[in-house]
Design a protein that fits this description.
TIM Barrel, Enolase-like, domain 1, about 35% helix, alpha/beta, about 325 residues, seven-stranded parallel beta sheet, 2 domains, three-stranded antiparallel beta sheet
């Protein structure tokens, strides 16, 4: 449910810009990330649910964007937010090149369980990250729910030697996460829940089931900064704020969420502007000495023009915006 007044669709359309940003390395199955940006009384906001998401799910992302554009952000409790490097499912030989894009980051999240790859690929990639980060660096993995419980247990055994900070969404369901957590508790590898929070009908179910040691939260999919803060407070678990491969506009909303959390014990997954070869903000909201500053950002008009999506993709996003706006209108 939208937490701020729903503006007329025409008001959003009046400033809407659709951009297509190229990625340095293929990530999450895409080489170009598309997003719709618009301006409200408080500044620019981003609406960028992944293209495969249905309108009902995507409308929650629109609610987050409308809130961000029209309402002041919660007070920041810190001026800078530490962030991690993000390593896509690249070959081990490419790891150092990826990490070089993340200035000063001492934590790395490594994608594993990529379709078409095998566990040996994951082991080689994580080993390369550990070697690059050194013994004092923090290494976490993210399987996006791709393993069953047995596969996850086997993988964590194989990866345990690299001193994992935690394993993010190793299995898809809450029941599987709870079973895996029980099996690997002796190994001392915490289990983090992402999709089991942001894609769940009940985002608190994973906490009630004792299926995770910490939550990975994202502002857009959860309906905005305020709703995400409520979920973390109700869950009573440590939280890591992450991005959904946002532009710098969306990332600034994630930073606002991280900055407003009463406790922030982990580096956040908000350094993903470094995965792009272009952005809409100059300079991009990319890590400097391992952190991001708080505060809103404003797109550069020239960059909005330079990276405007093709006409057919712009229309696709405007049509999607209209459908999601209708969903929110029906919920009022």
């Amino acid at each position: 449910m939208i937490s701020s007044p729903l503006p007329p669709l025409d008001e959003i359309l009046a400033t809407a810009r659709v951009v297509a940003l190229p990625l340095a390395t293929r990530f999450r199955g895409v080489d170009v990330r598309e997003a719709l940006l618009f301006e409200g009384p408080e500044g620019w906001a981003e609406f960028s649910p992944f293209t495969e998401y249905g309108d009902e799910e995507a409308s929650t992302w629109l609610a987050a964007a409308i809130e961000d554009a029209r309402m002041p952000r919660p007070a920041a409790l810190r001026e800078r937010v530490g962030v991690n490097a993000t390593v896509p499912a690249v070959a081990a030989a490419s790891v150092s090149g990826v990490l070089a894009r993340f200035d000063g980051c001492r934590t790395a999240k490594v994608k594993v369980a990529e379709p078409g790859q095998v566990l040996a690929d994951d082991v080689a990639r994580v080993r390369a990250v550990r070697e690059a980060m050194g013994p004092e660096g923090r290494v976490r993995i993210d399987a996006n729910g791709a393993w069953n419980v047995d596969e996850a247990e086997r993988a964590l055994h194989a990866l345990a030697e690299f001193d994992l900070e935690y394993a993010e969404q190793p299995c898809a369901s809450v029941d599987e996460l709870a079973e895996l957590r029980r099996r690997v508790k002796y190994m001392g590898i915490p289990i983090a829940a992402d999709e089991s929070v942001r894609k769940a009908t009940d985002p608190l179910a994973v906490a009630r089931a004792g299926a995770a040691d910490l939550l990975v939260i994202k502002a857009q999919p959860l309906g905005g900064v305020r709703r995400a803060l409520e979920i973390v407070a109700a869950a009573g678990l440590p939280a890591v704020v992450s991005s959904a491969l946002d532009t710098s506009v969306g990332l600034s909303m994630g930073v606002a969420l991280a900055a407003a959390l009463p406790e922030l014990d982990y580096d956040c997954g908000l350094g993903t502007a470094s995965l792009f070869t272009a952005d809409v903000v100059d300079p991009p909201l990319a890590p400097r000495t391992g952190a991001l500053p708080t505060g809103r950002v404003t797109p550069d008009p020239g960059l909005l023009d330079a990276h405007a999506a093709p006409a057919d993709r712009r229309q696709w996003w405007l049509d999607r915006l209209a459908r999601c706006h209708a969903v929110l209108d029906s919920q009022r």
